C-alpha cells in the first residue's frame, strides 16, 4: 500500500469490504468441499447401503443445507456483523452461550481441524514422491510449512488471500469436473451396471434409524455453508452479495456432490468404495491409470486441502476478531494492521495454534467429540433467528432487507433438533459426555476472564506490556472507524 | 461505537502498576459512552502507535522477524525435502503377475451362448455375454475348445484336426478375434487350450498315414506289445501310441514338421491376442520305447516349446509387454508338473484335486474330507513352492452341485474363493448349476449355460425354438439360472460375485499368507488370511473364514485354541467387521461390527461367514 492510500485510510482502520460476490462463492465452496469428497465420501453410503439410496440422501442433505442457507442469509442481513454464528448467538442469547461457542472453536475446533486438513494435504502432496507410507515427521514439517505460508498470505493482503482462495477453489472444481467427466465418459461407454436395477438399489437400508444416520453424515458434508457469514462486514455490498453467494454456492455444491458420487458409482461398486482408503485415487487408478492415481489425483487432493485451509483461515480469524470486539477475547484479537488492514494477531494465533497441534499428536480425537457441538451451534443460530423474529422491535424487523417466510426457520429448526437428538440414540454416550464437558469447560474461563473485570495489578501490567509489544511489532491497532 | 480516546495506556505511565479501572476517560465528542458494558481498552491507539512506525528500534526488529520467519520456513521446507530425498527408497511391492490374482472362468464354447440360433454356442455369443461375466468379477475367460476338433465332438479340445484354424461351428477367425478384443477392452484376459502332444484320428496327418509324425512301434520294438499301442490303420506290423485312448495318437516331437506346425499355431494365436495357453498332456511330449513318459526328455521338449514362445513374444513389438501365461493341469503326471513349474517353464498347474471329491467319498464328515484335501494340496504346494490354482469343478467330472448337495456345494465355492492363489471356476458353478440329464446320459456336466428360467429359448441359451442337442436342467424351482439369481439379494451368484471381487481387491486375499485351517467339532473349517509381518503381526487387514459343513449350529469361541491360533498378534476380535455371509446367516449383517471376544461366533448349519479384522 503506498503512502497516499494509507493517508486516505488514516482515519479508518478497519477491515475493508474487499470480498466480491465471486470471492464469496469461492469461499463457501472452498470451505464446504474439503478433502472429504475425494478421500472418504463413505459415511452416507455406509449407512444408506446402496448407490441409489445414498444419492437420494445426498440430495436431501443438499436440500437441508439450502434451507439452512436461506435462514443464514436472513440472519446475515438482519445482523450484518462479521463473526457469523458467534454474532447471532451473541445477539439472541447473550454473552455466555456465545462465549462457549467461541471457546470450543478457539481451543479445539479450529486449530485441530486446520491441523488435520494440513496433514491430509501434506500426505497427498508427498505421495507422488514416495512408494511407501510417508513418514510422520516429513508430513508434519510439510503441513507446518503450508499453514505458515497461508497464514502469511492472509496477514499480508486480503486481496491476495481471496485470490489464493479463488485459485484453489477453481482447481478443486477442475479436479471434480475431471472426475465427473471421466465418470460420464465411462457411463457413455455403457458401464451403467452399478446405476441400474438391481444393483443400484441392492442393500438399500429401509430402517429409519439407518437412514437418519446416513442423513446425519450427509449433512456434515455440507457443514461450512454458513462460513461466509463470518466475514459479512468485508463483503462488498453484503445485503445483496451475501444471499446471492449462498444461493449460488449451495446448489453448485449439491450438484457437484451428486455428480461426483454418480461418477464414483459408475466406475466402482459399493463394496469397492467402502473398502477404499481414498476413493478418488481408487477411481483414478481404474480409469486414468498410474499417472492419474499416483500423481494427478494426490495433487488435486492436496490442492483441495490448501483451498479449505485458506478459506477457514480467512473466515475463522474474523470470528475471533468479532469475539474480541465484543470484549470476550483479549483485545489483541481485534487488532488490525495499519499497513495491511488484516487482523494479523488473530491470524497468527490461529496459524500458530494449528502448527502446535500438528506436533501434539493425540489431540485429534478431540474433534470427534465435537461434531455434537457443531450441530448445536447451527441449532442455536436458527433458534436465535426464531427468537429474534419475535423479540426484535417492529421497525428493525420491517427494515430487514431479506424477509423469508417463517416456515423455513421453523422447518430448519425442527431438522436441527432432530440432528441434535439423533446421536444420543446411536453414538457412544461417552463421546457425547466428553463433548458436553469440553463445551462446559468454557464456563470457568468465562467467569474468570470475561465476567470478572478485576485483574490483579501485576498481571494486568504484564498483559498490557505484552499487548503493546505485539502492537509495536505488527504495527496494529484496534478497529477504528471514523464517523 | 463512538470514537473514544482512552488514554489508559499512555506509554510510560501505565507500567507503574495502576490498574485500568481508575483511569480517566476523555470523551472528546461529549457523547455518552457506556463504560459498564465493556472493559476499557488497553491497546495503544493509532496516534500513540504512530511514532513506532519508523522507530529505529522497532523497524529493524520487524525486518529481522520477517527475515527470520522466512528463514525458518525455508529451513522447515528444506528439511522436509531433505528427508524425502535422503530416506531410503521403499522397496516396490512385489506385484503378483496377472494370472495369480485373477478369477478364471472356464466355459464350453458350444454350450455358453448361441448368438446365431443354430443350436450351438459360438464366439460371438461369448462376446455378447462378456459383460455378464465381468459384472460378477470374472477376469479371465477360458473358452474350451477353440481349435478345430473332430466334427462329431463339441467339447474335447484334444480331438484336434487342424491346429491352425478355429472351429468354424463356433464362428470365424474374425469372430474369435473380436471376442479377444472385447475381452481386452474390459481389461480382462483370454486363455485357451493348446493340445501339443496328441491329435484326433481324423487329423489329415493320421489319415494320410504319415508315420514319421507319430510315436510308432514296429514288432521288434519293446512297445509293440504294450496295451497303449494300437494298430496303425489296421496294419498288424505297425502300431501307434494313443493317449489317453486310441482316439488320440501321440505326436512325435522329434519330427520337425510337428514342431513347426505347433509353434506356428502358437504364434498365430499369440498374434490374435490370446493371453495364455493351457498346455496339457505334457507327459506325452517324450516317451521311452515302451510308451512310458520320459520326464527329463519331456521337460526338455517343453523347454524348447516355451522358449520359442518367449522368443516370438520378444520379437514382436505388440506382444513384448504382454505376459503370456502357460499352464497345465494336475490330472496328468504330477512329478512332471512339479518339475516343469520349478524350472519356470509352466507358470502354474491347476490343482483339480477337489474336482474329484464327492459326498460319498467324504462320508461321514465333509469338513474332515475338505480339511484333508486342503492339507494334501498345501503339502504339494509347499514342496513345489508354486502358486496354487484351484479348480473345484471342470468339464471332466460331474458338476460340484451334483457331487455335493446344493448348500455344501455353495460352501465349497465360498471356500474356493477365499483360498490363496489363483482360481478357476467352471461355468454354472457361480449359481450352483447341477448336471443336466440328456437322453443318453452323456454330457451331463456339459448342459447349456442357463441365463434365464426355462422357456422356449432353452434357458436363454439359444433363440432356436426347435429341440437342441445339449441338455438343460429340469429344476422346478427355476432358480438355477444367471438372471434370477442376479436379481435376488444374497443369492449364490451374488455371494460369488462379492467374494470374487473382494479377493482381487484386498491385499490380504491377493497375496496374504494362510494360517492353516483348523477343524472344529468335525464340522467347521476355520482359517485366516493376512499379509504376515514380523512376530506374527498382520500388515493391513486380516480375514477369518468360518465354514460350517455340518447339520447343527456351531459356536466358535475365539478366545481358546484352536480358533485363537488364527488371530495375528496385533489384532483382536473386539470389533470384527462382517465382510461376507451366506444367505441363511441371520444374526450378522454385512458391514456390521461385532464383538467376538464377549460372545462366540454362531454359525447356523451349512453356512459361512467371512470376518474382517
From TrEMBL, chain A:
It comes from the Eukaryota. GO terms for cellular component: membrane. It is a multi-pass membrane protein. Gene3D superfamilies: Amino acid/polyamine transporter I (1.20.1740.10). Its main location: membrane. It comes from Caenorhabditis elegans. This is Amino Acid Transporter. It holds the Pfam family AA_permease_2. It is found in: Membrane. Signal peptide: none annotated. GO terms for biological process: amino acid transmembrane transport. Keywords: Membrane, Transmembrane, Transmembrane helix. The chain crosses the membrane at residues 21-39, 51-72, 100-125, 137-155, 167-188, 208-232, 244-267, 295-321, 341-360, 366-386, 406-426, 432-451.
UniProtKB/TrEMBL annotation, chain B:
It catalyses: Hydrolysis of terminal, non-reducing (1->4)-linked alpha-D-glucose residues with release of alpha-D-glucose. It is an enzyme of class 3 (hydrolase). It comes from Caenorhabditis elegans. Keywords: Membrane, Transmembrane, Transmembrane helix. This is alpha-glucosidase. One of its GO terms (cellular component) is plasma membrane. The chain crosses the membrane at residues 63-86. The keyword Transmembrane helix applies. One of its GO terms (molecular function) is alpha-1,4-glucosidase activity. SUPFAM superfamilies: (Trans)glycosidases. The keyword Membrane applies. Gene3D superfamilies: Glycosidases, Oligo-1,6-glucosidase, Domain 2. One of its GO terms (biological process) is carbohydrate metabolic process. Residues 106-503 form the Glycosyl hydrolase family 13 catalytic domain. SMART domains: Aamy. Its EC number is 3.2.1.20. InterPro entries: GH (IPR017853), GH13_cat_dom (IPR006047), O16G_dom_2 (IPR045857), SLC3A2_N (IPR031984).
